[in-house]
User: Fold these one by one.
Assistant:
Number 1:
Amino acid sequence: MIPAPFRHITVETVEEALAALVEFGDEARLLAGGHSLLPLMKLRLATPAVLIDISGISGMDTVQVDGDHLLVGALTRHRTLELSDLVAREAPLLGHVAGLVGDPQVRNRGTIGGSIAHADPAADLPCALVALDGVVGLRSVTGAQREVRAEEFFTGFWSSVMEPDEMITHFRIPRTGSAGWAYEKYTARAQDWATVAVACVAGRVVLGAMSDTPLRASAVEQAIASGATAAEAALTAHEGTNPSGDLRASAEYRAHLATVLTERVLLRSGYGI
Amino acid sequence: MSTQEWTKAVTVTVNGRRETREVEHRTLLVHLLREQLRLTGTHIGCDTSNCGACTVILDGAAVKSCTVLAVQAHGHEVTTVEGLSGPFDGLSAVQEGFRQEHGLQCGYCTPGMLMASTALLSEQPDPSPEQVRHALEGNICRCTGYEMIVRSVRWAAEHSDGATP
Ligand SMILES: Cc1cc2nc3c(=O)[nH]c(=O)nc-3n(C[C@H](O)[C@H](O)[C@H](O)COP(=O)(O)OP(=O)(O)OC[C@H]3O[C@@H](n4cnc5c(N)ncnc54)[C@H](O)[C@@H]3O)c2cc1C
Ligand code: FES
Ligand code: FES
């Protein structure tokens, strides 16, 4: 399968990328690792006329400490996060989850910026970013910069508050250090998107693939805070969720998985014992 | 747009040789390799980024060449199965391991398996069978049931010094 014809342009700076986004408007898409966009283009589910290749922008693929946060460049590959000692020490959930995305070949190409921009409710990094209470750093052609909490970034299936003339430049992720954390991803095959995923870190619990965005399990968090056991708290995991039924699982089975996986992450994170 | 705007010249170092070709912007790396450079060892299995038959090594990292544009490889280094070689009568330890342990039946997945295994061993010279299985999660084999493939990679790890069996 071959994508529909398009023009590929490379940019070297964020400014050039944003200028190109404005110049080509609706016709254009940014290209980072290409591991969500190219499969869609090969299926002709996406047919952009112009691809603005941002993968060569330098300095956007690093992880640094910035006060209480890690500053993660949008072009940082899953593989880099997976192998980073700094990430393992300061935000271990992030490195662990990055290592569960797809397979090694996918992790060698895919970037955190692409994964968050793509906003798939079954994807791993969006779920982890909300659990970590991370912040998405955006920039537009006017030079305007804004930071949006991950929790407020995702608005629906494959959609977010990002405007067409904006791009993600970085993420700011709290250094959770030794706070208890765990991630459970249930997949039917060795390598797959989550049927259901649950992330827990520092008392925050987030469900993946249980709605059209990653969803905070507020009832679970409250139950734990008021002294419930993990099993009791997990029974509330499906509250406020809206799972779909598909080939992977029925909605009922997803709700059941959410309960089982929530109990596991709570216990492994040291809550509700 | 004139047709010129749909094509550009890319220069890629493939198996140590600098190759320059005119490609359409939408040309996939696997098509540049197979159709323009006639390196047909790299296979297309699923064409949907799932099977890993098209795996090549790009700047040291295993990637699925059906999910990389040829233009994205411009200025980079690619190793395909044709570029593997070593002390085992010309074969690398990984290739010889697949021979010794019968790591293939029909052979369709094999080039991808060889490249993913080669990338694994360059990062992790002595992986456990469990680690081999995880590292090959992106490569599907419909014949072997994987057991012999895992043994082949272990064989390669045990014979990295090139000592003949
Ligand atoms: C076989 C396979 C298995 C996979 N399995 C999983 C899995 O188990 N879990 C999982 O979570 N994901 C999985 N993925 C998806 C993978 O994580 C992708 O890498 C990721 O979703 C997209 O990142 P990318 O850099 O490749 O983005 P691209 O494909 O380049 O871009 C994706 C989208 O984001 C936009 N974009 C990219 N960068 C930016 C930016 N900086 N600012 C604004 N917009 C931007 C693009 O315009 C495009 O719309 C899988 C993919 C494949 C092919
Ligand atoms: S052909 Fe590339 S992954 Fe199957
Ligand atoms: S040997 Fe036939 S697919 Fe692997």
Number 2:
Amino acid sequence: MAYLELRQVTFSYPRKMKPALTGINLNFEKEEITAITGPNGCGKTTLTKLMIGILKATEGEIYLAGRPLTDYSLAEIGSRIGYVFQKPDLLLFCSTVAEEIGFGLTNRGCDPETVQKRIKFYLDYFELTDYRNDFPLHLSQGEKERLAIAAMLANEPEFLILDEPTIGLDAYRKKLLENYLKKIARLGRGMILVSHDAPFVNRLAERVVFMADGRIQVCNERKGNDGYEA
Amino acid sequence: MSAKEMTAMKLDPRTKMVMVICLSCLALIYNTPGRLLLVLAATIVLLLIFRFDPSAVFGYLKPFLSLMLILFVIQCIFSPGGNVLLTVGPVPLVTDNGLLVGSSVVLRIIVVIAAAMLLTTFSSRDFILGLVQWKVPYEVAFMVFIALRFLPIFREEAINVITAIQLRGIELKKVPWGQKMTIYRQLFFPLIYGMMQKAQQLAVSMEARGFRAYPRRTYLRRLNFNLTDYVVMLLFSAVTLMLILLQIT
Ligand SMILES: Nc1ncnc2c1ncn2[C@@H]1O[C@H](COP(=O)(O)OP(=O)(O)OP(=O)(O)O)[C@@H](O)[C@H]1O
Ligand SMILES: [Mg+2]
């Protein structure tokens, strides 16, 4: 049984004639790294929003761990799947960077000491320690992206969906992120990466899904194939 | 589209503004739930005529629910007179008069918001055009327009934040009241700040595109009142005035 399963999923935005997604069939295993690529506007972001329940499929079914996604509340999905929006601003709502990272833990009843320890760890790892008392929306684009990723990772979800995680990251920070994602993957946590960044995708993903015009074009297994290595 | 709808769609935006002003005036003047309900019914009929889904009004009301509840409770407790329905110790807490006043206040807010929805049934350009042709300075008209534009943005921002919180695995519905208050208090400042940031960006991009760069601006179209507009406007103002006079005397 796949961890996330999409069956004949079709989705149209309200007041739009043409569906944004048509007849999507996809399976994601819990320990697998999948990349989704495709031209602007082909429906990648829409697809991820459907998978975490922000949008509801017009037709078709989505299953998470064997149960229909519609059975879960948004918070239940959120505690299983960590999602980072394409626009990190949408995820930042606290007054300081440190609070932002600790928000989920604090409000789910973690004891303060553990919370502080984890905040410190993620601030260090994503090199945000200097900004810990700054206002999140004042950070630079790349810093916001790192903060959004850190805040999501601090919750330790079992699966990740990252929409354009490398946008705005410099080469060094990209490498840091890559290493961290690899580390998580080794712990058996899978992820979906939506990205235009081919070298990044090729270094991480075991499978690449190409989309065009709201449909799946090609679904490539690339296990053991390192020919693309950039 | 039926013939009736056709005429309705063609009404000048200013006519609709007059309607909204009339409805809001009535809502403010009336102070009994019965009359306010009638005004609300009239508003809903108008919304239907302009093909605005009245159930969508509820979505706009949601952010105001807690405010309305607080107002209701305050009015209930602090309105004097009437028959006592509930006493706590020696203090008469709830009276029938209090209940009436409380529900009137809530209904009043609902009517004003529902009436304001009429303003969303024409395009914002027409709105500005209408005001300008009434000799309202363009800057002022534009500001009013921006204010109206920002209501949905504010709502969207609030929805985004709520979604983001839930995605962090927090079941807002199950969080105890005290903690919920703490969370909301924490969110207030960032939310307002995020909006101000958006407003600032808008101002910059407007100036970059020449807003107010020239002393006079020109308009492509003129709005014209037609006979229906005059009739509707006159009818509405007359009826409202009459109702207000009846209420006062
Ligand atoms: N809220 C919305 N309302 C209506 N249409 C939308 C909305 N969001 C996206 N769309 C449309 O749906 C289509 C798919 O958009 P989507 O954001 O999923 O593309 P994408 O593959 O993520 O693109 P990008 O590479 O630019 O991120 C686009 O044609 C877009 O115009
Ligand atoms: Mg996208």
